[in-house]
Write a structure and sequence with these properties.
- The structure holds 2 protein chains of 2 kinds.
- By secondary structure, chain A is α/β, with parallel strands linked by helices.
- Chain A has 2 domains: 229 residues, P-loop containing nucleotide triphosphate hydrolases (Rossmann fold, 3-Layer(aba) Sandwich); 243 residues, P-loop containing nucleotide triphosphate hydrolases (Rossmann fold).
- Chain A is built from 16 helices and 23 strands.
- The longest helix of chain A is centred in the middle third of the chain and has 16 residues.
- By secondary structure, chain B is mainly α.
- Chain B has a domain of 222 residues.
- Helix content of chain B is 70%, strand content 3%.
- Chain B has 14 helices and 2 strands, in the order βααααααααααααααβ.
- Chain B has a two-stranded antiparallel ribbon.
- The chains are: A alpha/beta, B mainly alpha.
- At the A-B interface, helix 10, helix 11 and strand 18 of A face helix 9 and helix 10 of B.
């Protein structure tokens, strides 16, 4: 490391109407440093990196790049100054090849053959094997991320910003990525790494800056700080670890017999011959990389997608041909991943959203006529019991923060006393304290004798709450195994290893 | 660069005020248009909005308001159900024609028999005619995923051919000296949809429109089916998740709108129009689309919008004959109304941002 910092930020402030996203944030990154940016959702991480990448202009404050003032008016300027960014959500065209996708993002794209050669060269140097002529639609999530990374590396950045890069990867794929990042760092490229997965940060990053409510609340050396201490710095208070009392599982509540179904969407994943039983009081955790049949599994269980008869038995009866309302009446409840637009109608009030799934079990209507005061009462009960921060149930679902809406969506199902609850990504994009509250609610529900299926991409979460663990891979479900004692290596193999990606040789 | 940014919570007052603002803006720009055409804008606006209600001949025009407003409201109420759910029946004009043909057909079949039951049977037949015509796009959509906009619209032209064929053939008045057109139902007591109070313009169609407004209001605000319609429009996936069967909703929404359009056609042919003629339809089915949006898809709003639209129709007629305004200018004027409403609607839900893009 040299004495001149690569990037120096001092006193950056950015306010949006009603919220100060960044308040007097200062940060220094040296060349070759792997710097973690930690914080809950809404802490201001995204705003900060968007300012560095030229997507957002700071209200006040200074940025310096290698000692010179740096104020990129747009991402193009940031890129030419040597800043590259890999976003959490990929911006790739499925129907185009790798090289074509990369060419689209370049200012002066070279001829295709020359570009392909450069892609090959870069990918081999950094242990990211990738064939330039493959169609992106056929690539796994890990390989798509490689495309994004290579797109950045072709510009030879001095600073690479990575926003939650591992959320779509298996443990093996994470290992490959980390090897690449370490090599980049050794060559002098600084990396600004955004994540809330603390163990990853401990293994990868040299330094960390922790943000809370837009302010820098601390710095630490991740290797020397425990994950728990970092989490408490992020949240600002002591964390409650979800607790549970061990209990023998009861009767079989749900039995899937060779569940197979075609996906309704063109790029979806069919379900292939899934057989599993879930018992009362048990939590079955289902892991797997996104897009391996999670949405389809939830849809077949909620009744949105009907299967052939005999595939789904609930409480001993075949419910395969019943729709969502009939399944709810029997006690089969679910909460999908997508909060806005699937689990909840964004522009409708919380009262209306409470009615959305609560009508049958909470008796919110008589003969089809809605009892609005009962519906409001139910919404208020959810808001109170699950500590949903909102001025009242008349507010639109859209106006709630992600964590609060998620608490509402999960709470809505939990309060209906389900016999089976299926949730997909219950704490996705939710801050740590809300996530802990949701997990505790799920554990309490199991304690009360409900059978649960928790589908999630957060392995730590699954290990924390599941009794048994299984993984979805290419629409197939692995044999469930007791969660206690599973190693990361074993979980990774259940999830399909490195998805056929060649292992990096760095 | 100008961008639209979604407002987190649209102002309630502003969203109630937009129809009024749209009318005012239409008056201003319509006035400009009339001025360019060489007419005194104030006189033109007064002729359109004031004379039908309070002018010298208002006693003649006021009943017309109900006669022209009722079919618009009846059809628009039906359309609004589908529009709320994202199901676009553009072919109400065709369903209106078929309702009229079925209703008139039943009436003419009984001629010259008199009986109290004839008119109720005609009502049922009219509703059925509109419903069956709307079931064609509905079933094609549910079974084969066809686009209901295209199918329902094209069926309008099919219905118009039917209408021509009927008034020249099967339903032609045998005592009509060879002129096209059916017997005049106004002269057939059992089939005549007469004013309930003579000279008021208040015929059964007006009653049906009022019932439809109340029915739609209760359905949308108090009933699960209305809730299903609204959720489907707002968030189709959430609706499906909550247990709404999309196919059934398509059948219901298209069925209801077809039925109401058919009723409107039947009440028109047995009352104000009196007979099946080649040019029986005058575009109520299309204008009702404007009425539905002008009334913001709300039953009470539609009632008011239907009356306003009827007013511009009547006022437009007066302006044409008294001031010599071209018919096209009146149509532009009516189009402006929808344009300003939709434009102001955008501004209710979004705010304009000027300057370079900043992704927040």
């Amino acid at each position: 490391m040299t004495d001149t910092p690569l990037l120096h930020l001092s006193g950056l402030t950015k306010a949006y109407p009603g919220v100060v996203a960044n308040d007097d944030v200062s940060l220094t990154i040296a060349p070759g440093e792997v710097h973690a940016l930690l914080g809950e959702n809404g802490a201001g991480k995204s705003t900060l990196v968007k300012m560095i990448y030229g997507l957002v202009k700071p209200d006040t404050g200074l940025m310096e790049m290698q000692g010179a003032p740096f104020a990129p008016p747009e991402p193009r300027a940031a890129r030419s100054a040597g800043v590259g960014m890999v976003f959490q959500h990929f911006s790739l065209f499925d129907a185009l090849s790798v090289a074509e996708n990369i060419a689209l993002g370049m200012e002066n794209a070279p001829r295709m053959s020359a570009l392909s050669a450069r892609i090959k060269a870069v990918s081999e140097t950094y242990g990211l094997p990738l064939a330039p002529d493959r169609i992106v639609g056929d690539l796994s999530a890990g390989e798509r991320q490689r495309v994004e990374i290579i797109r950045c590396l072709l510009q030879e950045p001095k600073l690479l910003i990575m926003d939650e890069p591992t959320s779509v990867l298996t443990p093996q794929e994470v290992e490959i990525l980390f090897k690449t990042l370490r090599k980049l760092s050794a060559e002098g490229t600084a990396i600004l790494y955004i994540s809330h997965k603390l163990e990853e940060i401990r293994s990868l990053c040299d330094t960390a800056t922790i943000l809370r409510l837009g302010k820098v609340v601390g710095h630490c050396i991740p290797r020397d700080t425990s994950a728990r201490d970092m989490a408490e710095m992020m949240v600002g208070s002591a964390l409650k670890t979800p607790t549970r009392a061990g209990k023998e599982p009861g009767e079989v509540v749900l039995a899937l017999n060779g569940l197979s179904a075609r996906s309704p969407s063109a790029f979806g994943m069919p379900l292939r011959d899934i057989s599993v039983e879930v018992r009362a009081g048990e939590i079955l955790g289902i892991g797997g990389v996104a897009g391996n049949g999670q949405d389809e599994l939830l849809a077949t269980l909620s009744g949105e997608m009907l299967t052939a008869g005999g595939m789904i038995h609930f409480g001993g009866d075949d419910v395969s041909l019943l729709g969502p309302t009939a399944r709810r009446a029997r006690g089969m409840l679910s909460a999908p991943e997508e909060r806005l637009g699937h689990a909840a109608a964004p522009d409708m009030s919380l009262t209306e959203n409470a009615l959305l799934t609560g009508a049958v079990r909470e008796k919110l209507d008589t003969g089809g006529f809605i009892n609005w005061s009962r519906a409001r009462g139910f919404a208020e009960a959810i808001v109170e019991r699950f500590d949903v921060r909102t001025p009242g149930p008349a507010n639109a679902a859209r106006s709630l923060s992600g964590g609060n809406l998620q608490k509402f969506v999960i709470g809505r199902e939990v309060l209906q006393r389900p016999d089976l609850l299926v949730v997909n990504q219950p704490t996705w994009g939710v801050d740590a304290s809300a996530a802990a509250a949701i997990r505790q609610a799920l554990l309490d529900l199991a304690e009360g004798g409900t059978a649960l299926i928790v589908i999630s991409q957060d392995l730590d979460e699954l290990m924390e709450i599941s009794d048994r663990f299984a993984a979805l891979n290419e629409g197939r479900l692995s044999e469930p195994r007791p969660a206690a004692g599973l190693t990361v290596e074993e979980i990774g193999l259940m999830m399909g290893g490195a998805h056929g990606m060649e292992v990096a040789h760095v | 660069m100008i961008r639209l940014e979604k407002r987190p919570q649209p102002s309630r007052i502003f969203s109630l005020a937009t129809p009024v603002l749209a009318v005012v803006a239409t008056m201003i720009f319509g006035g400009l248009l009339f001025a360019v055409l060489g007419k005194d804008p104030l006189v033109a606006i007064r002729t359109i909005f004031w004379d039908p209600l309070f002018g010298e001949f208002a006693f003649y025009y006021r009943p017309q308001l109900l006669i022209k407003g009722a079919p618009l409201v009846l059809i628009a109420i039906g359309l609004s159900m589908g529009f709320k759910a994202g199901i676009w029946n553009i072919g109400a004009e065709g369903q209106y024609i078929m309702g009229a043909l079925f209703g008139a057909g039943v009436g003419l079949a009984f001629y010259p028999l008199e009986g109290w039951y004839i008119f109720p049977l005609m009502v049922l037949a009219g509703a059925f005619g509109g419903w069956i015509w709307a079931m064609i796009p509905a079933i094609l959509k549910v079974r084969f995923g066809t686009n209901e906009i295209l199918v329902s619209l094209m069926l309008v032209y099919v219905a118009e051919q039917f209408l021509a064929s009927m008034s020249l053939g099967l339903m032609k008045n045998p005592e009509g000296f060879g002129f096209p057109g059916s017997r005049n139902l106004q002269q057939y007591e059992s089939a005549f949809n007469a004013d309930l109070i003579a000279g008021s313009g208040m015929h059964w169609g007006v009653v049906a429109a009022m019932i439809a407004v109340i029915f739609a209001y209760v359905l949308l605000s108090k009933h699960r089916l209305g809730f299903a319609i609204r959720v489907t429009g707002e968030a189709p996936r959430a609706a499906k998740f909550s247990g709404v069967n999309p196919a059934r909703l398509v059948l219901f929404c298209l069925g209801v709108s077809g039925m109401l359009a058919g009723l409107a056609g039947m009440f028109e042919v047995s009352g104000p129009a009196g007979q099946v003629t080649i040019d029986f339809n005058v575009g109520y089915g299309f204008t009702a689309i404007i009425v539905a949006f002008l009334g913001r898809l709300h039953p009470i709003g539609i009632l008011l919008a239907g009356l306003l639209m009827a007013l511009t129709y009547i006022g437009g007629d007066i302006a044409q004959s008294n001031l010599g305004l071209p018919a096209a200018a009146i149509q532009v004027f009516q189009g402006m109304l929808l344009f300003f409403l939709l434009a102001l609607d955008v501004l209710t839900n979004y705010r304009l941002r000027f300057g370079t893009g900043e992704v927040a």
